Amino acid sequence: MNISYNGQALTLSQPHSLLEVIEAQGAQAPYAVALNGQFVPRSGLAEQQLQEGDSIELLSPIQGG
């Protein structure tokens, strides 16, 4: 299965949840997640199964002034 993670192509050998892929990529909280342009609440990350062609964007807060 081919997906996109923050603009990078990833190939998965078996089905994974959105949370599994995020954790495998070493993401550190806090972050927000968009799947195919739609925000996914943290409570739904483990339930969301990925499909061929999905696009994941991980957004981290930026501090500054």
Automatic annotation (TrEMBL):
Cited CDD domains: Ubl_ThiS
Pfam families documented for this protein: ThiS
Gene3D superfamilies (UniProt xref): 3.10.20.30
InterPro entries: Beta-grasp_dom_sf (IPR012675), Mopterin_synth/thiamin_S_b (IPR016155), Thi_S (IPR010035), ThiS/MoaD-like (IPR003749)
Name the record gives this protein: Sulfur carrier protein ThiS
Lineage, uppermost ranks: Bacteria, Pseudomonadati, Pseudomonadota, Gammaproteobacteria, Alteromonadales
